[in-house]
Amino acid sequence: MEGAYDDRDGKIWLDGKLVEWRDAQVHVLTHALHYASSVFEGERAYNGKIFLGHEHSERLHFSAGELDFEIPFTADEIDAAKDEVLKVNGFTDAYVRAVAWRGAGPDMGVASARNPVRLAIAAWEWGNYYGDAKMKGAKLDIARWKRPSPETIPVHAKAAGLYMICTMSKHEAEAKGCSDALFMDYRGYVAEATGANIFFVKDGEVHTPEADCFLNGLTRQTVIGMLKERQVKVHERHIMPGELEGFEQCWLTGTAAEVTPVGQIGDYNFEVGAMAKDIAGAYETLVRS
């Protein structure tokens, strides 16, 4: 599938029914457009089955609750709608986007309790998020923005507003010839990339930032489980930027990123080593099993 995302053939599930892709529209006074009252999920289907699809649907509900609204469809109904979207569009391997938001209604200010909550699900074919970086290792910039404190915003929700600094940081990274950017958090610890969690290897053990102020990704949780099954010691802890120099390998995890090795972060270089390759290959096997 090619072309602008608003001008394609196919079907999108919108508020309980399938509509033509180009007809999946919202009004300019939709509350989410003005106040970021929107949550979403990014998922991948492999061989016609969405990996951890129900867990994604449940997290969508959790995120909505964190933003003080309720989705008018159950997790099971969302699961069924995602399967319907894949089937009607003829996809087996695809990226799936579910998004829920406060729509246009009687309220058009900060408050929006009387506005309807809407839900849409779309899918499209999408290859490697970082292109050929899966083979040679992604190159990361270090973002000038920081992940915020849990006291300032619901950091564990997959909420649209949390991604604005990601967009700006990724644009800056790409302008420097990088694939992505690494965030520090509000305390100065290593946090995550713009849309992926991060792992490091040193002396055969794995270190990953504690997910106390950013999304604890489903892929992150899956990979931690895979490492523990392999008897690899995993340290979930606060990591100082100066520690990057001592790590030997690095990779990113996320639904879009899958497992992508990292070759460079700023001035620090990493080997695309055996553990990174092993986990990337094992993850690929798992999601297609």
Task: Describe this structure as you would to a colleague.
The protein has two domains: 11-124, D-amino Acid Aminotransferase, Chain A, domain 1; 133-287, D-amino Acid Aminotransferase, subunit A, domain 2 (D-amino Acid Aminotransferase, Chain A, domain 2, Alpha-Beta Barrel), CATH 3.20.10.10. It is 26% helix and 30% strand. The protein has helices at 31-35, 53-66, 75-89, 133-136, 164-175, 218-229, 274-287; strands at residues 11-14, 17-20, 38-46, 49-50, 94-102, 117-124, 138-147, 180-185, 190-193, 197-202, 205-209, 234-237, 249-254, 258-265, 268-269. Strands 7, 8, 9, 10, 11, 12, 13, 14 and 15 form a nine-stranded mixed sheet that branches. It has a six-stranded antiparallel sheet with strand order 2-1-6-5-3-4. The radius of gyration is 19 Å and the shape is globular.
Biggest pleated sheet: 9 strands, mixed
CATH architecture of the largest domain: Alpha-Beta Barrel
Structural class: alpha+beta
Ends: how far apart? Answer: 25 Å
How helical, in percent, are the residues?
25-40%
Q: Could you say which overall geometry the principal axes of the C-alpha atoms support?
A: globular
Low-confidence stretches: none
Average pLDDT, all residues: 96
Number of H- or I-type helical stretches: 7
**CATH level-3 fold name of the largest domain:** D-amino Acid Aminotransferase, Chain A, domain 2
Elements, N to C (H/E): EEHEEHHEEHEHEEEEHEEEEH
Radius of gyration: 19 Å
Number of distinct beta strands: 15
